[in-house]
């Protein structure tokens, strides 16, 4: 089977390509390299099992040509939370890109596996979030909601393509993933920046008071769930939460990373009040209900947070030393 992946040079895309190729699939990957790196997939370049196209998902003709031979398409290319701007790119890349992928999949009725996010549950206070839970989104004047709204638009569009044109779609809502190849800035999530700060003996920046919670998923567990979803054919349209159900506050996360890094000095926190981030709203708690993914896909996260963080810290130590050497 040949799988098309958008965003293949990113964190999740490159780990997914590794797993699919190891499992016997061919991969056609596209990425415009705006946030991902060719280094993440360079070990596959030259292999007959992997084709890479540096294109933008907003270019429909190029996407159609690149995925002409793909049996299924996993759509990962996206812009994320516009905490510090980028609302235009978030809305445009996610919505034009999502529509183009669905248009390409319409030729030959190929299944689309669409990456969505736990952010679509927004401020819903009823935990844990099941796939049928409400989306409680804040006001349009707060830019950060544009990410959730863009993903909700993609979800609705995918379901409409299924209903109107018969394109099979599987929507996956990911809950905060981390691990090797995560972006080393806030783009990659709190693990990346906390590990960097602690290894450099700098203060760890906490947004808000740090009591907000998240549920973090180690990358190999997430990839296992995505691969199961790629091979799932029973429903023409379905939605699954993919995540780990262990909940931890952001402040505790900083503490655990500090312990696992074996830092010599005491943990220094720098509290950044939400008010200094402009008009901003955070999600207080986030926990998935994964009953559906367990029962239907056989998905079961295996790597607990401490083990996942140990592996991530080991990878990041090396990644940071390579970055430092390259900068010299
Ligand atoms: N990482 C997480 O914890 C998480 C959580 C929820 C949802 N998601 C979703 O999963 C998907 C993958 O996330 P990730 O963490 O791997 O992000 P990432 O930024 O590492 O990867 C995304 C890739 O898409 C590429 N890209 C961006 N705009 C593009 C465009 N216009 N054309 C072509 N390529 C483009 C980037 O260069 C990058 O390589 C995204 O859709 C994201 O919204 C991720």
Percent strand? 15-25%
- DSSP summary, beta strand count: 13
Task: Describe the strand arrangement of the main beta sheet, using strand numbers.
Answer: 3-2-1-4-5-6-11
What ranges have pLDDT less than 50 throughout 5 or more consecutive residues? none
Largest sheet: 7 strands, parallel
What is the overall silhouette? globular
Rounded to the nearest angstrom, the distance between the terminal CA atoms is 44 Å
Please state the CA-atom Rg, rounded to the nearest Å. 19 Å
Q: What structural class do you assign from the helix and strand content?
A: alpha/beta
Describe this structure in words.
- The protein has 328 residues and is of the alpha/beta class.
- The chain contains nine helices and 13 strands.
- It has helices spanning 11-22, 60-66, 87-106, 145-165, 190-199, 219-230, 250-261, 291-297, 305-327, and strands at 2-6, 26-30, 50-53, 72-75, 111-117, 169-174, 177-178, 204-207, 213-215, 217-218, 237-242, 247-249, 269-272.
- It has a seven-stranded parallel sheet with strand order 3-2-1-4-5-6-11, with helices on both faces. It has a two-stranded parallel sheet with strand order 7-10.
- Strand 5 (111-117), helix 4 (145-165) and strand 6 (169-174) form a beta-alpha-beta unit.
- The chain starts with a strand and ends with a helix.
- Bound molecules: nicotinamide-adenine-dinucleotide.
In brief:
This protein has 328 residues and is α/β, with parallel strands linked by helices. The chain is built from nine helices and 13 strands.
Break the fold down into its secondary structure elements and pairings:
Elements: E1 2-6, H1 11-22, E2 26-30, E3 50-53, H2 60-66, E4 72-75, H3 87-106, E5 111-117, H4 145-165, E6 169-174, E7 177-178, H5 190-199, E8 204-207, E9 213-215, E10 217-218, H6 219-230, E11 237-242, E12 247-249, H7 250-261, E13 269-272, H8 291-297, H9 305-327
Parallel strand pairs: 1-2, 1-4, 2-3, 4-5, 5-6, 6-11, 7-10, 8-13
Antiparallel strand pairs: 9-12
The structure holds nicotinamide-adenine-dinucleotide.
Nicotinamide-adenine-dinucleotide is lined by residues 7, 9-13, 31-36, 56-58, 76-80, 93, 97, 115, 117, 174, 176-177, 183, 189.
């Amino acid at each position: 089977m040949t799988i098309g992946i958008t965003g293949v040079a990113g964190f999740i895309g490159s780990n997914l390509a590794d797993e699919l190729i190891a499992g016997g699939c061919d991969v056609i990957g596209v990425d415009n390299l705006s946030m991902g790196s060719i280094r993440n997939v360079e070990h596959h370049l030259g292999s007959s099992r992997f084709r890479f196209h540096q294109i933008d998902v907003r270019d429909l003709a190029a996407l159609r040509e690149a995925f002409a031979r793909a049996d299924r398409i996993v759509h990962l290319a996206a812009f994320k939370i516009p905490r510090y701007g980028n609302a235009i790119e978030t809305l445009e890349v996610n919505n034009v890109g999502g529509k183009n992928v669905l248009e390409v999949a319409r030729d030959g009725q190929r299944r689309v596996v669409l990456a969505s996010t736990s952010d679509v549950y927004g401020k819903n206070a009823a935990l844990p979030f099941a796939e049928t839970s409400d989306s409680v989104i804040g006001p349009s004047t707060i830019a950060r909601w544009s990410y959730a709204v863009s993903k909700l638009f993609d979800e609705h569009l995918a379901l409409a393509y299924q209903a109107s044109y018969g394109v099979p779609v599987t929507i996956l809502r990911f809950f905060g993933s981390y691990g090797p190849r995560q972006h080393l800035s806030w783009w990659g999530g709190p693990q990346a920046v906390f590990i960097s700060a602690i290894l450099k003996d700098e203060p760890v920046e906490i947004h808000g008071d740090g009591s907000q919670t998240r549920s973090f998923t180690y990358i190999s567990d997430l990839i296992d769930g995505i691969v199961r979803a790629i091979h799932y054919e029973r429903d023409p349209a379905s939605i699954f939460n993919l995540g780990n159900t262990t909940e931890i506050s952001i402040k505790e996360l900083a503490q655990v990373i500090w312990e696992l890094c074996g830092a010599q000095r005491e943990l220094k926190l720098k509290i950044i009040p939400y008010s200094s981030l402009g008009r901003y709203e955070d999600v207080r708690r986030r926990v998935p209900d994964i009953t559906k993914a367990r029962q239907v896909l056989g998905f079961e996260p295996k790597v607990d947070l401490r083990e996942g963080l140990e592996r991530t810290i080991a990878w990041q130590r090396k990644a940071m030393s390579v970055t430092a050497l390259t900068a010299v």
